[in-house]
Specification:
Blueprint lengths: L3 H10 L16 E2 H12 L3 H12 L11 E2 L11 H4 L16 H11 L3 H25 L13 H4 L8 H5 L24 H16 L4 H7 L4 E2 L1 H20 L3 H17 L4 E2 L4 E2 L1 E3 L4 E3 L17 H17 L26 H13 L3 H17 L8 E2 L6 E2 L5 H11 L2
Antiparallel strand pairs: 1-2, 3-6, 4-5, 6-7, 8-9
Helix pairs in contact: 1-16, 2-3, 2-5, 2-16, 3-6, 5-6, 5-11, 6-11, 11-12, 14-15, 15-16
Bound molecules: alpha-D-glucopyranose.
Length: about 425
């Protein structure tokens, strides 16, 4: 049995007053896409607290619309790199990149499910202009030539930090030469975390941002890492369709029209990422102009984004069927037959429960309810097999063992919003 009291307790423990940290020591600030999923978790038992999570996040939005991937609400020496390294002069100290844009979807769902309907409408009315600005930022600053496919400038922006899809484009990035002290290794075993070489390169990309004064036109030319992340493209498209519905509901017709045009552009362009050979959509290296041929769970997210046609969805379903047969605890974050598969290393094999939720949602939408149900069952099994509260950052697809940070917020939120249904 899934312990939902324990899930609620995890969110309460990680509540720092207005925002919820992913987990107390390893990630002591507010993370963008974690927070959107966490808000959905709060919403299952405390609607006001859920809206507060959103308000706090959007309180850190930049004037150009960027919603940062981290808001550093207070000082902490348990995380590196902090605001001094990012060097952004924002209202709330923050990073200068974003993360997969789940927020519009979260807010639309919260509105639909609110018991306090009038209060929820007031919240949405207040947040909507900021959501619109956020999505405009993606389409304007990250798709400067209106290609329909937005760019991603940092592996951290993808939310799937050390995904093997980024190995080749990241290998081209030089590392920083200065000395620094990683804080993550004080909390989690090195074998489960990115390597030092990867970290050197992540930091170089942070420096590139700062040296180019976060200017989108300079960064488009200067960033040595520029990819189309099929995960971001999919989540953005799905969230934008939810945003369009919100705009219509609240009388923002022009905004709705212009976002409709953006989605249509993405739908026309996404075929470029389809690979019949791999039976999924691949991410794309914008610098070498090549597909990134690694089958990760991001390559399945076009189902969540409703970007696959029926034939493609059928092929993806057959891929997922084989994938499920090879995972004792599904869904491993990369295909289990990949030579780079590593069951305990972060985004190179472990199971991430919010991704399970997204893939299952996509499968169901295309009519593959049985496969969706198997992923849901697998998600339950992970929580049940893990020690303690059962809510871990990620899980081994082979043993179900919880890895990374413990008492982690987003698996707890996923249990509340999905496994309870
Ligand atoms: C790691 C994950 C990222 C997440 C963050 C906080 O960086 O890769 O997706 O948002 O931790 O949980």
């Amino acid at each position: 049995m899934i312990d939902l009291d324990a899930a609620r307790a995890v969110l309460r423990t990680n509540d720092l007053g207005g925002y919820t940290v992913p987990t107390r020591t390893l990630y002591p600030f507010q993370w963008n896409w974690d927070s959107a999923i966490i808000a959905l978790g709060w919403h299952c038992f405390d609607e006001q607290r859920a809206w507060q999570e959103a308000r706090t996040m959007f309180g850190g939005q930049w004037s150009n619309g960027l919603l940062p991937h981290i808001l550093f609400h207070h000082e902490s020496d348990s995380y590196f790199p902090g605001p001094d390294i990012w060097g952004a002069k924002s209202r709330v100290p923050s990073s200068s990149i974003s993360q997969p844009p789940v927020w519009a979807l979260a807010i639309a769902r919260m509105l639909r499910r609110s018991a306090a309907a009038a209060a929820a409408r007031d919240e949405v009315r207040a947040l909507l202009p900021q959501l619109v600005d956020y999505h405009r930022w993606w389409y304007r600053d990250r798709d400067r030539h209106d290609s329909g496919l937005v760019d991603c400038y940092h592996p951290w922006e993808s939310g799937m930090d050390n995904s093997p899809a980024w190995d080749e484009p990241l290998a081209r990035v030089p590392g920083v030469e200065w000395e620094y002290q990683r804080r993550d290794l004080g909390h989690v075993d090195q074998a489960q975390r990115p390597t030092w070489q990867e970290y050197d390169r992540y930091l170089h990309l942070v420096e590139v941002q700062r040296k180019n004064k976060f200017d989108p036109s300079r960064l488009a030319a200067a960033s040595p890492f520029r990819v189309i992340d099929i995960g971001i493209v999919s989540i953005l498209s799905r969230a934008t369709s939810e945003l369009i519905a919100l705009c219509r509901q609240f009388g923002l017709e022009e905004e709705a029209e212009s976002f409709q045009a953006e989605i249509a552009r993405t739908e026309r362009a996404v075929g470029r990422c389809w690979s019949g050979e791999h039976r999924c959509f691949l991410s794309w290296d914008q610098i070498s102009n090549e597909p990134l041929a690694e089958i990760t769970t991001a390559t399945l997210l076009p189902l969540f984004g409703r970007l696959a046609n029926d034939k493609q969805a059928g092929q993806m379903a057959s891929l997922i069927e084989e994938w499920l047969a090879a995972n004792r605890f599904p869904l491993s974050s990369i295909h289990p037959e990949s030579p780079r598969y590593d069951p305990e290393c972060y985004w190179r094999g472990p199971v991430w429960l919010h991704i399970n939720w997204m893939v299952a949602d996509g499968l169901r939408a295309y009519g593959y309810s049985q496969l969706a149900e198997r992923i849901k069952e697998g998600t339950r099994k992970c929580i049940e097999a893990a020690a303690g509260s059962g809510y871990f950052e990620y899980y081994s697809p082979e043993t179900g063992q919880g890895c990374g940070g413990g008492d982690f917020s987003w698996p707890a939120a996923v249990a509340l919003l999905w496994l309870n249904e």
